[in-house]
Specification:
Chain lengths: 398, 386
């Protein structure tokens, strides 16, 4: 068994070095993609959202409102349409994503306590832009409103400035955002994206890793063979996970506040879980293209359905039941918490337990299946590595 | 006539190929149902929060009551200290904590400007933003009520007090998608990626099925036939997926389906270049599938859907647009369908995809022919996956 185990690892290594496909899919593409994602989100926050202002008042107050938007880096006031039709056209054609309409006599009506209305228009077809713009615009307008209220109190009630301020700010609302105070999209997305691509690579390569023609009659050798595969891909996958985590942390400055050892152990657990599952699929589905497609369909959408971006609590019930069956569910939010919140290791215990159970069950099924499978070839010690590289891919049929 | 005969043969070959048919026909529909289902709930609701009420006055209880009655929150914990609150946030058990200070009610009444603190777990921006926005609305509404009462207490009539507090109002209007649903935002982008993936896989498998024959002569014509035999299925299932999104998930549709078909067809043609290049580089179906599946995530993330193109470094945008056509398609496709984007606004992206095709297709055919013709001549034993 040990010989078979070591032979398998050696053989897989040879295939990787000669064929390069394992190297490309599990290591090279994830590393390249990690650099692309890091550069893509280098802006962190959404800035310079194109904005149009229709100021029908042109008073000092309305110009002050516009000025606040001009000075804010979230907005880029690029258009001054002459009427609402022109404003609509700018939004329809996506040249502007935000519009502000200040009504006629705005300044005058504020002084006369007629409570005029500023109309904010957001392009709801792009939710990231719309929500960022809405939060920032509300902040600006609320501040302006408080300032106007204070001035009215001073003017109408003859209050001194500090008394007017206390009255206007009788309840102050302050907020503190923990772990990602700047609301960086890079911090939010990249820990998951960086590792999802590695998981996909492991799932795709393990889906074709078991080659039936390599199986021998001796059950012990078969167990050694499958364990050799499991160790090889798990180690390779773990290395890739760690490199990608380091790229995000060291190159793209995403803070890693938790235990790095914890991330390594967690990544190892995910690599083993995906590997043994992938090998099991490879064993039970002999058509390699179909096995690859099955693993692709199971693992590629993980980012969406395990509650990483769209939160788990908002998933429909069926998805809430299914999501915890995926190893990535027990990994990705924990990893982001290790990055951003410095999650203590004891919070991971339940997920480690889950990985332990999942890996044990799949491993038992895998070993059971490999022992039960019928082998046609005579029981010979096939020293595949001496033959050079076994070209498993040439055997593939649709 | 010969053209139609050849086309029918290609379509028949595809129908007989189980993998290709599953990809082309079931792929976009099944994936739309799976992905759409994940976003079926409109809003982020029932976010677990904790309350630290250091005042326990009628005013503070009224504020807590407002949070209790909001659909967005579920009060899971009532704690006695900020440390407990922090522990709950650290452990991920709550998304937000509300701290009402001691003497809150008294301070408000005596105009000592009391401060309500909201602490948000910002690791997930979606829940962080939603909880912050809702908490802000509740507290600002209560604050406005208090301000009106304070002004009234100075002998000002109620309506005047209200007009003073509401010195001006601002109304928000969310255009094109008033409910601002994540499902509506994402689904057409996903469908665009599904079309890319099924064309990439289906056409790639179909070409690799007869790679030597395709490379031998009249490559453009043969690729064209294979393209049509795949596109007819891929585009039909893509538009069936759009129909499901609209009818079943209630996604608004304002644009012209014909214009969308035109845009999707131009995009599908532009995918032919990458298909031929990847086919030539990988040489057989399995490796081809592995590479094309690996490209799906980066292609989607860099196409300007999740993170707008104008927020990316311009050099990256240029590289992405030079190498892959999805960035010229996904957002336009979505905005055409959701907003009813006018044709004039689509011209730029259509032109960009056409230039992409004109640039890459001849190069791709050259590389493809070189690879597979060489294999025929030298008799390299590495067979193409049949």
């Amino acid at each position: 068994m040990l010989k078979s185990f070591l032979n398998t690892i050696g053989n897989e290594w040879n295939i990787m070095m000669k064929e390069k496909m394992i190297l490309i899919v599990i290591l090279m593409i994830p590393i390249a993609v990690n650099f692309v994602f890091g550069v893509e989100f280098s802006n962190d926050q959404i800035r310079n959202i194109p904005m149009a202002v229709l100021d029908m008042d042109n008073s000092s107050l309305s110009r002050m409102v516009t000025q606040q938007f001009i000075e804010n880096e979230t907005f880029s006031v690029r258009y001054y349409p002459k009427n609402s039709d022109e404003m609509k056209r700018l939004l329809d054609e996506s040249r502007a994503r935000v519009g502000m309409i200040i009504p006629k006599d705005f300044g005058k009506e504020v002084k006369e306590l007629k409570s005029p209305t500023v109309l904010m228009l957001y392009d709801g077809s792009h939710i990231s832009l719309a929500s960022t713009a809405k939060v920032k615009a509300s902040e600006i307008l609320m501040t302006l409103k408080a300032g106007t209220f204070i001035k009215l109190l001073e003017g109408k009630l003859n209050l001194p400035k500090d008394a007017a301020e206390r009255m206007a700010l009788s309840i102050k609302f302050t907020s503190r955002t923990l772990y990602n105070p700047a609301k960086s999209f890079k911090y939010f997305f990249n820990p998951g994206l960086a590792t999802a691509i590695v998981q996909t690579g492991i799932a795709l390569m393990t889906a074709v890793a078991i080659r039936r023609e390599e199986l021998q009659r001796s059950r012990k050798k078969r167990i050694g063979y499958v364990l050799g595969k499991a160790i090889f891909y798990s180690v390779l996958g773990t290395i890739s996970f760690i490199i990608c985590i380091l790229i995000q942390n060291k190159v793209f400055d995403i803070p890693f506040r938790g235990s790095f050892i914890g991330a390594v152990v967690l990544s190892t657990a995910l690599a083993i879980a995906v590997t043994v599952f992938g090998l099991f699929v490879s064993l039970v589905i002999s058509n390699k293209l179909l096995a690859t497609t099955v693993n692709a369909v199971l693992f590629i959408p993980n980012m969406i359905i395990v509650g990483y971006t769209w939160p788990y609590i908002s998933l429909p019930k069926l998805y809430q039941i299914v999501a915890p069956c995926f190893p990535f569910y027990h990994y990705v939010n924990n990893l982001r918490n290790l990055f951003l919140a410095g999650e203590p290791l004891n919070f991971l215990i339940k997920d480690f337990e889950w990985f332990g159970i999942f890996i044990s069950i799949i491993l038992v099924l895998l070993i059971g299946a490999i022992c039960l499978i019928k082998v046609e070839e005579p029981d010979e010690d096939i020293e595949i590595e001496e033959e050079g590289v076994y070209n498993g891919f040439s055997e593939i049929t649709a | 006539m010969a053209f139609l005969k050849s086309l029918l043969k290609e379509i028949r070959d595809n129908i007989n190929d189980f993998t290709i048919m599953i990809l082309l026909v079931a792929g976009p529909i099944a994936l739309t149902v799976i992905f759409g289902g994940a976003y079926f709930n409109t809003y982020v609701e029932d976010m677990p929060i904790a309350i630290l009420d250091n005042d326990n006055s009628s005013m503070s209880r009224m504020m807590v009551q407002q949070f209790e009655e909001s659909d967005r929150f579920v009060i899971q914990y009532r704690v006695d200290s900020e440390a407990q609150l922090k522990e709950l946030l650290d452990s991920g058990k709550i998304i937000m904590g509300l701290c009402i200070p001691q003497n809150f009610s008294n301070d408000v009444k005596t105009l000592k400007s009391s401060e309500v603190l909201v602490i948000v777990n910002g690791t997930n921006i979606v829940t962080g933003n939603n909880s912050f926005a809702q908490a802000s609305t509740i507290i600002q509404t209560i604050a406005a009520g208090v301000q009106i009462k304070t002004v009234e207490a100075k002998g000002i009539p109620a309506q005047v007090a209200k007009d003073m507090v509401m010195s001006f109002k601002f109304d928000d209007r969310m255009l094109y998608d008033p409910r601002n649903k994540y499902l509506n935002y994402l689904i057409f982008g996903y469908i665009a990626v599904f079309l890319q993936q099924v064309m990439l896989s289906g056409l790639g498998f179909s070409i690799l099925r007869d790679a030597k024959e395709v490379a031998a002569k009249n490559t453009l014509g043969k690729v064209g036939l294979k393209f049509l035999a795949c596109a007819v299925f891929a585009l039909t299932s893509t538009f069936a997926a759009i129909e499901i999104a609209v009818k079943f998930f209630g996604v608004p549709l304002k644009g012209s389906i014909l214009a969308a078909l035109l845009l999707a067809s131009i995009f599908s043609i532009s995918i032919v270049g990458p298909v031929l290049i990847i086919a030539a580089l990988t040489g057989e179906k399995l490796k081809y599938a592995q590479i094309s599946f690996m490209l799906s995530l980066p292609a989607f993330i860099t196409c300007g859907y999740v993170w707008p193109l104008d927020q990316m470094p311009s050099s990256l945008v240029l590289a992405v647009k030079l190498l892959w056509p999805l960035a010229s398609f996904a957002r336009s496709f979505d905005e055409l369908l959701i907003k009813g984007f006018p044709m004039s606004s689509l011209k730029g992206d259509m032109l960009s995809m056409m230039i992409y095709t004109i640039f890459w297709l001849p190069i791709a055919i050259f590389i493809f022919k070189k690879k597979f013709k060489r294999n025929v001549i030298t008799g390299v034993p590495k067979e193409i996956g049949a």
